[in-house]
């Protein structure tokens, strides 16, 4: 799934990393592990003991995709850096679980009702392998399934009695899914119509981006994701740069922090420009007011007084002339009476 997400990184700005870590429930106990008693992701770790168990697991890491270490508490820690499932197969009665303190993770699907009439056509599909048998007992289904798996070259699925009358159990323990579907005309397998199961230890997917991550769609649960928007954490506290994934996450977070700072600086710069323009406008207005005041204060008083007197005389002359004109009109009117 991470590969699919990373193919669209250019468009989404989101990168995905996956990791899977399984830690034992208690410190490693001294003991001997026989050949075939411990398998990881379907690979036999071989004969070893608790003192050399980590080396034995790491010697097979190219096949399993899993590395081992002992943590500060003395507990066995298994890690798949690519996030693949980690399946643990402890042979029954081997005592491996008591040494490693990591539980078995067998994925099992049980066909609960197998006893159908002989001669009835029955078809069962397990991980794409078609199992057809003519009905009868649970043993007939086990035989038909083993024959079908052998013909298809499938070696990681075991078939056996399911522990109850008429039941058949299909088991896989290499980290892969177990997918079963029954299509019958009898009473077989009412409990396994369209069943998909995986009991392995699953990893986690981490999405990284320098902005809010929006997850949507109808199949988000396949990757353990939830719909919605997630704000990206830009905190660098508690980061781990001792691994490649941790260093890449740290670099991304630092980039996100720098981007956030750039946005803040841009906003502050815009506000500063607005303030600067306002200050310049005020300064221009202030200069104009001072220039006007200076013109008023520097006026030639004698010249302006003479001009004022001249204009006042002209105004009075005009008023007198208008008054005389009115008087002449009145005298004419009196003579006409």
Q: CATH class of the domain at 2-105 and 200-232, please?
A: Alpha Beta
Strand content: 15-25%
Order of helices and strands: HHEEEEEHHEEEHEEEHEEEEEEEHH
Total of helices: 8
> How does the helix and strand content classify structurally?
alpha+beta
N- and C-termini, Cα separation: 121 Å
Radius of gyration: 46 Å
Report low-confidence residues grouped into runs of 5 or more. 185-190
By CATH, the topology of the domain at 2-105 and 200-232 is Alpha-Beta Plaits
Secondary-structure arrangement, i.e. CATH architecture of the domain at 2-105 and 200-232: 2-Layer Sandwich
Strand order of the largest sheet: 6-7-1-16
Shape assignment? elongated
> How helical, in percent, are the residues?
25-40%
Mean pLDDT across the residues is 81
Largest sheet: 4 strands, antiparallel
Tell me how many strands there are: 18
């Amino acid at each position: 799934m991470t590969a699919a997400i990373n193919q669209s990184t250019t468009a989404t700005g989101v990168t995905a990393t996956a990791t899977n870590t399984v830690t034992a429930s208690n410190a490693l106990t001294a003991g001997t592990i026989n050949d075939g008693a411990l398998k990881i992701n379907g690979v036999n770790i071989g004969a070893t003991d608790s003192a050399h168990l980590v080396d034995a697991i790491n010697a097979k890491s190219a096949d399993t995709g899993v590395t081992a270490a002992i943590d500060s508490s003395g507990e066995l820690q298994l890690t798949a850096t690519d996030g693949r499932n980690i399946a643990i197969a402890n042979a029954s009665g081997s005592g491996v679980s008591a040494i490693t303190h990591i539980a078995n993770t067998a994925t099992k699907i049980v066909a609960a009702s197998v006893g159908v009439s002989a001669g009835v056509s029955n078809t069962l599909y397990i991980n794409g392998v078609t199992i057809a048998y003519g009905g009868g007992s649970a043993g007939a289904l086990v035989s038909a399934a083993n024959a079908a798996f052998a013909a298809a070259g499938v070696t990681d699925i075991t078939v056996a009695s399911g522990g109850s009358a008429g039941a058949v159990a299909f088991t896989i323990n290499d980290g892969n899914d177990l997918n079963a579907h029954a299509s019958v005309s009898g009473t077989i397998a009412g409990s396994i119509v369209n069943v998909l199961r995986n009991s392995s230890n699953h990893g986690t997917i981490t999405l990284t981006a320098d902005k809010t991550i929006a997850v949507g769609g109808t199949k988000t649960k396949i990757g353990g994701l939830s719909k919605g928007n997630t704000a990206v954490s830009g905190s660098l506290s508690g980061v781990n740069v001792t691994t490649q994934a941790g260093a890449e996450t740290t670099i991304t977070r630092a980039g996100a922090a720098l981007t956030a700072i750039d946005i803040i600086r841009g906003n502050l710069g815009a506000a500063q420009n607005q303030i600067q323009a306002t200050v310049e406008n005020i300064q221009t207005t202030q200069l104009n007011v001072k220039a006007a005041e200076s013109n008023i204060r520097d006026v030639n008083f004698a010249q302006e007084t003479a001009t004022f007197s001249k204009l006042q005389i002209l105004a009075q002359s005009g008023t007198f002339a208008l008054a005389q004109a009115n008087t002449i009109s009145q005298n004419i009117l009196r003579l006409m009476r």
